[in-house]
Design goal:
alpha+beta, five-stranded mixed beta sheet, four-stranded antiparallel beta sheet, 8 helices, 52% helix
Length: 232
């Protein structure tokens, strides 16, 4: 699950090292007044070369301090701690944070593995966003409408498939995953969560926008409209 994070982390560390090197080079140039750089920058302005040298030293010192601090934090960064912290952040929005975070950990540890970075059980879908290893938590019990969205180029080439989930409070969640996995999740909703409207059409969209939850529940009892898909 952490492979993408490791690659992303390596790139960020290299970028920070480059920034640190640039900051160190600028500090040396301004401090030793190499190449008369301060004088060249001050030429044609009201600032003296001595002031420009001082400003350059301060600016490069700030770059050194900030890049050094960021590099130290990045090297010490623990993806597992970040992931658990993001689970806790979601749990804190619920009425029982402690029990919720334990339940989320259980989903992640023993839930059905849709992908290495996406797990599911009857309560939650949890996606690990691999860059920073943040947890995208989908509480299934809050979902009232779910459908698939396919992004296309020239109405022919599929570029992205997402699972779109709508909550009763008019908030929602999104998971970008393979079309096969999206279809599987929707199928599970159809079989185990019959109160969720599965599939997209304009009638369902109008009911949802009008906040007609009773109408959505009645619609959910009808034969499924899935696999109707919204194309973007």
């Amino acid at each position: 699950m952490y492979e993408n994070w490791k690659r992303n982390n390596k790139k960020m560390i290299m970028l920070m090292i480059l920034t640190l090197a640039i900051g160190a080079a600028l500090f040396i140039i301004f401090c030793l007044d190499l190449f008369s750089f301060a004088q060249l920058l001050a030429k044609g302005s009201s600032i003296t070369s001595e002031d420009m040298k001082l400003y350059g030293e301060i600016f490069s010192a700030i770059i050194l301090i900030l890049s050094s601090a960021a590099l130290c934090c990045k090297i010490k960064e623990d993806p597992e701690k970040i992931f658990v912290k993001s689970l806790r952040r979601y749990a804190n929005t619920t009425q029982q944070p402690d029990s919720t975070v334990e339940r989320l950990k259980k989903t992640w540890e023993s839930g059905e593995q849709l992908r290495d970075w996406c797990r599911m059980d009857e309560k939650y879908i949890i996606e690990c966003i691999n860059g920073p290893c943040y947890a995208n938590v989908i509480p299934i019990q809050e979902v009232v409408w779910a459908h698939k969205t396919v992004t296309q180029v020239n109405a022919v080439i599929k570029t992205n498939t997402s699972l779109i989930l709508h909550y009763a409070n008019h908030k929602g969640g999104t998971i970008s995953i393979s079309e096969t996995a999206v279809d599987y999740i929707l199928q599970q909703f159809m079989e185990k969560h019959r109160e969720i409207v599965v599939g997209y059409n304009r009638e369902v969209e109008k009911l949802y926008l009008k906040k007609d939850m009773m109408g959505l529940r009645e619609y959910a009892r009808r034969p499924t409209i899935w696999p109707n898909t919204k194309c973007a």
